Amino acid sequence: MSEEKVRIFDTTLRDGEQTPGVTVTPEQKVQIATRLSDLGVDAIEAGFPIVSHGEMQAIKTIVNSGLKAEICGLARATETDIDAAIKCDLKYVHTFIATSDIHMKFKLKMTREQVLERAVHAVEYAKKHGLAVEFSAEDATRSDRPFLLQVFKAVEQAGADRLDIPDTVGYATPQYITQVVNDVRAATKLPISMHCHDDFGLAVANSIAGINAGAACAHVTINGLGERAGNASLEEFVMALQCLYNKKHNIKTQMLYETSRFVSNTMGIIVQPNKAIIGENAFGHESGIHTHGILNNPLTYEPISPELVGRKRWLQAGKHAGAHGINAMLAEFGITPTEEQLKLIVEKQKDVADKGKAITTADLLSIAGEVMHNAQFEEKFKLYDFHIVTGMNIIPTAVVRLNAEGKDLISSETGVGPVDAALKAIQKIAADVASIKIREYKLDSITGGSDALAEVSVKVEDKNGNIVSARKANEDIVVASVEAMMDAINKVLLKKVLYSKS
């Protein structure tokens, strides 16, 4: 088993889409499926065909898109659900029925005999229609063990190709998962999958326990999306497998961060900053002790290289930051203060942080420029003016006029709102000299009332993975957003100038 690759079954488009408040269009499902296939997942659960006509159309499109990954659809253990899967051109179905007493009594209102019969018939029906079948015993970890094994044996005899052990309410422990997998392996010869939920924060640990006990596959989702507390996170599971257990897989790990961001943006679910592997802060450092160690040897405070998962290390100014970290941040912009200047810069940025303000890149450079009387901070990009057209039944449109190194440039863009349109127009103009992506946009109200002073913070990343942040305040949210974006771009250009000289 140690030499075999662990199979990665991604259910972002099915269980992940069942995250409360999430819904994606058929076109978006196809886009996500393409990203997942490029990432290297072995199987994609494209959806639940019986749910809607749009769902069926999306799944059918994904099936016929020529993706490398196997495409699977979910079906209850009924002919109607399996027929819906067949209509989507699927050749692989994931069918399920609950086997725990609590589910059978209160949800299904069926006896054990009826559940067993339904499970066997579903597998036989799917196999008769030429489908590969993965069978799940829903709520397996709370099921009576002899009955669970009886059902698994029966569906194996009926022709099932794979068995799945769902920890449906995330109630199991790694030790318990190990026992279940051992019992199922002793009872059947079929490959076993794990489907673990994260209600107690153990989904990844339980999935790994299952693999270590002999399971061949894990059902996972990008960013750990899923119902309630979510499913096992693909990125955490894969990196733990690779780095902690020396197990192989087909995932292109350098694509994890971009895939995570794409799914987050498409599904509208923000990833918590401190989430392992793909959270914005996963490779960010502020503490003086940490930054000093990192600068001497990254392994002091990083278990893996950020580049391994498509990330780049970044340092944060703030009240915990020390001289080594601040000096390193300034050096990234070609700024070399004297020892006395550095001491003063560190003190001044700590004073700002003590007032409860996060120190953006622009803030730090402004402080440095003030202390050093440095003319290096002259803006390369200057805003002349911009116009916004928006309103009821009108697509928000922005026209922006800038000056870049003596040249007047103009651009127009549409967006979901006036801010989106304006920022897109700026990015369009800046694309040739500062190709950046907005990684974070934050809006705060400093004062109360409808005329409140709005404070906008943006965090952008250039094509080299460098992260720059800026903040501006204004009574007009659009103006504050545009000014913050311009400030961030100008700071990115400072780095570009430095790189071009080196």
The CATH topology of the largest domain turns out to be TIM Barrel
Number of structural units classed as domains:
3
Could you describe the largest sheet, including whether it forms a barrel? 8 strands, parallel, barrel
Distance between the termini: 49 Å
Tally of extended strands? 16
Number of helices: 16
Average pLDDT score:
91
Looking at CATH, the homologous superfamily of the largest domain is Aldolase class I
Q: Which overall shape is indicated by the principal axes computed on the Cα atoms?
A: elongated
Strand order across the biggest sheet? 1-2-3-4-5-6-7-8
Quickly give the structural class.
alpha/beta
Proportion of beta-strand residues? 15-25%
CATH class call of the largest domain:
Alpha Beta
Rg result: 27 Å
Give the CATH architecture of the largest domain. Alpha-Beta Barrel
State the helicity in percent bands.
40-55%
* Unreliable runs: none
Could you characterize the architecture of this molecule?
With 502 residues, the chain is an alpha/beta fold. The protein has 3 domains: 7-267, Aldolase class I (TIM Barrel, Alpha-Beta Barrel); 284-374, Recoverin, domain 1 (Orthogonal Bundle), CATH 1.10.238; 381-501, Alpha-isopropylmalate synthase LeuA, regulatory domain (Double Stranded RNA Binding Domain, 2-Layer Sandwich), CATH 3.30.160. The protein is built from 16 helices and 16 strands. The chain has helices at 26-39, 53-63, 79-87, 101-108, 112-128, 145-157, 174-187, 203-212, 234-244, 256-267, 288-296, 323-331, 339-353, 361-372, 418-430, 477-501; strands at 7-10, 43-47, 70-76, 92-98, 132-138, 162-167, 192-196, 217-220, 284-285, 314-315, 381-391, 394-404, 407-414, 436-445, 454-462, 467-474. The strands form 4 sheets. The chain has an 8-stranded parallel β-barrel with strand order 1-2-3-4-5-6-7-8, surrounded by 9 helices. Strands 11-12-13 form a 3-stranded antiparallel β-sheet. Strands 14-15-16 form a 3-stranded antiparallel β-sheet. Strand 14 and strand 15 form a beta hairpin. Helix 1 runs antiparallel to helix 10, helix 7 packs parallel to helix 8 and helix 8 packs across helix 9 (234-244). It is elongated and about 80 Å long. 45% of the residues are buried. The mean pLDDT is 91.
